[in-house]
Specification:
The structure holds three protein chains of three kinds. Helices cover 72% and strands 0% of the residues of chain A. In chain A, helix 6 packs antiparallel against helix 7, helix 9 packs across helix 11 and helix 10 packs across helix 11. In chain B, the strands form two sheets. Chain B has a six-stranded mixed β-sheet with strand order 6-7-8-3-9-10, with helices on both faces. Chain B has a four-stranded antiparallel β-sheet with strand order 2-1-4-5, covered by helices on one side. In chain B, helix 6 links the parallel strand 7 and strand 8. In chain B, 39% of the residues lie in helices and 26% in strands. By secondary structure, chain B is α/β, with parallel strands linked by helices. By secondary structure, chain C is mostly helical. Chain C has twelve helices and six strands. Classes of the chains: A mainly alpha, B alpha/beta, C mainly alpha. At the A-C interface, helix 2, helix 3, helix 9, helix 10 and helix 14 of A face helix 1, helix 3, helix 4, helix 9 and helix 11 of C. The complex binds adenosine-5'-triphosphate (ATP) and magnesium ion. Adenosine-5'-triphosphate binds next to strand 2 and helix 1 of chain B.
Chain lengths: 362, 246, 397
């Protein structure tokens, strides 16, 4: 009989760095060509970019002529303009208020992504947070100076439009989703019509509609301010997409859960509120995060109807005659802000999805 | 003496740092029927998957029907044509009908005319006793029927060697027999070299020429079924048998 | 309980109207819901009509027949200020369709390549495509459009010092200039040859399948198809007399004359839309391929199928089922996102309808036109994709 063989380490030809290179970069002629092509591409593009963005770049110049002289990027432009880009036309001395508002909004988002807080506690957190943000931004109470919302701008505005948008759209979205799955034909038809109509047209057309048509909708003598109009458009828009996300969750709930609830004799409201929705909403948190990212990105479209979000205040910063022609730098800066927000949220939702997926199997 | 159709010489394999096959030596004669058993994770699947290069070994030699398995794609293709494989989870192609599943290999690999491929397919469907299911999709069949289709699919390639990797362990108990019956029929017909990973000891007793016991990546013991079951030598074999036979 | 009445009874007793009857409730709920919607709609419409009348704005689509008075930067059909608003809107529609169709084709190609590359065994390729996908998806499209537009108009030199990419192809802040075929009939023949190639490919695929069924011999359909696609236009060109002269753009004064132009607006919009959507399509393709169980690859290999046969016969047909629905929404997104053209001045339907409504004051009509156009496009794309999806759907137990 054989005796037990020792467990040997694998031969180095299969594990060392050389083996790695051969396996992962040159495993076939095609792969070798692809590798060489990519290396060539990187060598062609990266060094010139680094030279432009770092080596020849100017971080400190006081005037645009001086900044341009080096032939590289002019990051000094960002240094001069970042307050305008981040906070728009908000009174300069009061800009600590939008800063705190931004921090609160971010904190609210972060808290909502932690599974431990997925209870009713989110409701007071959101309501309280939104009130605090409103007080900070508008002022007029607690000794804060009143600031008209036409002066709001930049990053806090982007965050406000997207978080308020999702938060307020949420109950509508849930109602629409339930309506679409309802057995009552009239209600179902209304919900389907709304959802498909909104999802069939671009957000821009909704924004145009709200900016030119909303004023016409109101009785004579009423007016509605521009920011609110954009916010309404975003809410109406988000609600349709939210409804589809929630519907996905409702569909994923096994039929047995509905039957179980029915067999207990629960009313429709109790069945949905206590049994179905809590489960369905938990399933759809990852797609909800993706939706939030989409709305956050789409909020940049309000620039087209002239609202001072992050995008628009950047465009305004670019029109300063003393600092002309630094769009690329400005856009890269703003892209990085958006990227940090969106990327961290999407990475988070991917992790969450993995965790929820395994949690469900067991 | 009959020339060996499969020869494994001191085959070693690692998954990363994990030494999964250790100095495997195995010679299989033409027409021989071998049953491989052993505890979970002992490397049974890995070993038979090395024989048709679904896994790559890193040391040693594997020679199938006179051709050594190397990185040469020609050799790999040639060997895969000779070797049929049946999987634990059937792996039927869900977007093709049963008949299309069976004719795919003959048409695209063996370059047979469609009519001929279909005739062969029907022959083997008859043999596994489900000719009436030919135009259904795999998703419409029971597990046992699916596994029989999978066996027929391999047979349609007219292989010299059949590998079975726990063909009955994903099946409900009442379906195990119908699949085993097909396999016994195949074995009793003779001529086909079979290596079968299974814990169906009744099957092993009935058809195996040799039973191989693997543990921790090694072949610990091999013997005729009678000797193997009545007189296991190694204590790990004894322990395993006592667990599996209750 | 609603069903206590039927207990023990041979036939259901006559029903009394009761709030506890689910059918009664259902009717009441629906009547209430519909009336609320009707009331809100009536309220809004009557307000609107009232507001319009005090502002002296007439309603209706009469303005469409009036002379537009504006010029459009680029148009696939002839257009001048003397043409009507209706024609202007048609130009916008054609421009939208043009960018959407080209965009969908290019985004599908790039997205598929990147999606497959993300699964590549080649570490460098996989990482590069991952970086591409993550960066492109996490920055707003509008910002990317502004970026490309600024890159073209601000950093490229003027026409007089344009960058020559290839002889006859120039890149400047006025866009990209390429040689265009002249009016010569040979180019028409080449175009006919190109169309003919598709017909021939269809016939060839059919014949090849028949031959394989009969003899078992496969025909190299892909290589032959490619040869036809290249060969037929060349053949048409040769028959037409093989003219060598092209309409090559030439610098004259401050700008180029001749050749075909890719305007900065169109280039930036197309570039942005394609790169952005390709990032999403790549993810769709990747997850579609990953959705196919690894056992399918193994079973195919065990049968002796080659890698490319496995991909073509086993994996792609299965992943298509997973890919098509999300792919549809990406196509819809691209089409809807083409409305961002208005931000960089490409004359698409939104931007022209916007100009129209600003000039005529017909806001409601303008917005209705935009929405109707997009709804029509969206519905036709979904309709087509749903039909295709049914076509390839899988029969399950
Ligand atoms: N792709 C892989 N990467 C790393 N380790 C693997 C891989 N496949 C298998 N292993 C490990 O190799 C060992 C042998 O696996 P193998 O599938 O051959 O076992 P087995 O004897 O067939 O077990 P079972 O009876 O459960 O099927 C196991 O410990 C397994 O965890
Ligand atoms: Mg196994």
């Amino acid at each position: 009989m054989t005796t037990a063989t020792e467990s040997l380490p694998p031969p180095t030809s299969t594990t060392g760095p050389i083996a790695w290179v051969r396996e992962r970069l040159f495993s076939s002629p095609l792969n070798a060509i692809l590798t060489i092509l990519s290396v060539w591409l990187i060598l062609m593009s990266l060094p010139p970019f680094i030279e432009w963005a770092l080596i020849k770049a100017n971080f400190t110049a006081a005037t645009s002529q001086e900044c341009r002289a080096g032939g590289g990027a002019c990051w000094a432009f960002i240094g001069v303009k970042y307050r305008l880009m981040l906070f728009g036309l908000y009174p300069y001395d009061e800009q600590w208020r939008p800063l705190i508002a931004t921090v609160i909004l971010i904190a609210m988002i972060v808290v909502s992504t932690i599974p431990r807080f997925w209870t009713v506690i989110l409701l007071p957190i959101w309501v309280g947070g939104l009130i605090a943000v409103s007080v900070l931004m508008w002022g007029g109470v607690l000794g804060l100076r009143y600031v008209e919302d036409t002066l709001w701008g930049g990053l806090p505005l982007t965050l406000i439009l997207s978080t308020f948008g999702i938060a307020i759209a949420f109950p509508f979205g849930v109602a629409l989703a339930l309506g679409r799955r309802s057995k009552m034909p009239a209600i179902k038809t209304l919900c389907v019509l709304y959802i498909e109509l909104i999802r069939g047209v671009p957000l821009i057309s909704m924004l145009f509609m709200s900016s030119v048509m909303l004023p016409l909708f109101l009785p004579e003598g009423f007016s509605i301010d521009k920011l609110l109009r954009a916010q309404i458009a975003i809410i109406l828009f988000a609600a349709a997409y939210l409804a589809e996300v929630v519907r996905g969750g409702l569909q994923a709930i096994p039929k047995g859960q509905y039957e179980g609830a029915d067999s207990l004799g629960l009313s429709y409201g109790h069945k949905m509120g206590f049994i179905i929705l809590p489960q369905a909403l938990k399933i759809v948190i990852p797609p909800l995060v993706s939706l939030f990212i989409a709305v956050f990105k789409d909020t940049s479209l309000v620039v087209i109807i002239g609202i001072y979000d992050l995008m628009q205040s950047t465009k305004v910063a670019l029109t300063d005659p003393a600092w002309r022609g630094f769009s690329i730098e400005a856009y890269i800066f703003v892209s990085m802000i958006y990227f940090v927000f969106c990327y961290s949220m999407s990475k988070y939702s991917q992790n969450l999805e993995k965790r929820l997926a395994t949690g469900h199997k067991r | 003496m009959v020339a060996p159709i499969i020869e494994l010489q001191t085959v070693n394999k690692w998954y990363g740092e994990f030494h999964v096959l250790r100095n495997i030596n195995l010679t299989v004669k033409k027409g021989e029927r071998i049953v491989v058993c052993g505890p979970s994770g002992s490397g049974k699947s890995t070993m038979i998957r090395c024989i048709n290069r679904l896994e790559e070994h890193q040391k040693g030699h594997i020679i199938v029907d006179g051709t050594e398995l190397t990185n040469d794609l020609k050799n790999i293709d040639a060997i895969r044509r000779e070797v049929g494989m049946v999987f634990q989870h059937f792996n039927l192609f869900p977007h093709l009908t049963v008949l299309e599943n069976l004719t795919l290999g003959p048409i695209w690999v063996l370059k047979k005319p469609k009519a001929e491929a279909e005739a062969t397919a029907m022959k083997y469907l008859n043999r596994v006793r489900i000719p009436e299911q030919a135009s259904k999709y795999p998703g419409q069949l029971s597990g046992g029927q699916q596994q029989r289709v999978a066996i027929a699919r391999s047979l349609c390639m007219n292989p010299k060697i059949m590998l079975f990797d726990e063909p009955t362990s994903a099946l409900d108990p009442e379906m195990v027999k119908e699949v085993l019956d097909v396999m016994v029929g195949l074995a009793e017909e003779g001529g086909m070299t079979m290596i079968c990973v299974t814990h169906e000891m009744g099957f092993a007793r009935k058809v195996a020429d040799r039973v191989i016991f693997m543990d921790r990546g090694e072949i610990i013991e091999q013997n005729t079924p009678n000797e193997f079951f009545s007189n296991p030598q190694n204590e790990r074999t004894q322990l395993f048998l006592s667990q599996i036979l209750h | 309980m609603a069903d206590h009445q039927s207990k023990g009874a041979q036939s259901a007793p006559p029903r009394r109207l009761s709030w506890n009857d689910p059918d009664v409730r259902s009717v009441v709920y629906q009547v209430v819901a519909v009336s609320i919607v009707v009331m809100v709609a009536w309220f809004l419409i009557s307000n609107t009509l009232h507001n319009l009348s005090i502002r002296n704005i007439s309603t209706g689509f009469d303005f469409l027949g009036r002379e537009s008075g504006f010029a459009i930067g680029e148009s696939p059909i002839a257009f001048g200020p003397e043409n009507t608003y209706a024609r202007a809107i048609l130009v916008g529609l054609l421009n939208t369709i043009r960018v959407a169709v080209i965009g969908i084709i290019l985004a599908t190609i790039i997205g598929t390549v990147v999606g497959i590359a993300r699964l590549s065994k080649n570490w460098l390729i996989a990482k590069l495509s991952m970086i591409y996908v993550e960066v492109i998806r996490n920055v707003p499209l509008l910002l990317q459009l502004f970026f490309w537009y600024a890159l073209i108009t601000e950093t490229l030199p003027g026409p007089r010092s344009a960058i020559t990419i290839m002889p006859g192809v120039f890149m400047s802040n006025r866009g990209i200039k390429v040689p265009a075929p002249t009016d010569h009939g040979a180019f028409d023949l080449a175009a006919i040859g190109f169309l003919l190639a598709f017909v021939l490919i269809g016939i060839m695929v059919n014949l090849a399948k028949k031959r394989q069924d009969a003899t078992g011999k496969a025909f190299p359909v892909y290589r032959a198809g490619l040869a036809l696609l290249v060969g037929m236009p060349v053949l048409g060109w040769l028959i037409g007399g093989a003219p060598l002269e092209l309409d090559v753009p030439k610098l004259q004064g401050f700008n180029f004359v001749g050749g075909a132009t890719l305007t900065p607006e169109f280039a930036a919009l197309l570039f942005g839309l394609v790169l952005y959507t390709a990032g999403f399509i790549a993810e769709v393709v990747r997850s579609g391929i990953q959705a196919v169980n690894y056992g399918q690859w193994e079973a195919a290999s065990a049968l002796g199928l080659t890698r490319s046969q496995t991909l073509r016969l086993i994996v792609l047909p299965q992943s298509l089922r997973v890919i098509i629905p999300p792919m549809t929404s990406q196509y819809l997104n691209l089409t809807k996102n083409s409305s961002l053209a208005v931000a960089i001045g490409y004359p698409d339907i939104v931007s022209i309808a916007n100009t129209t409504l600003n000039q005529t004051g017909q806001a409601i009509e303008g917005i209705m036109i935009i929405m109707a156009v997009y709804l029509a496009i969206s519905l036709s794309i979904s309709f087509f994709m749903n039909w295709y999806n049914k076509h390839i759907a899988l029969v399950e137990r």
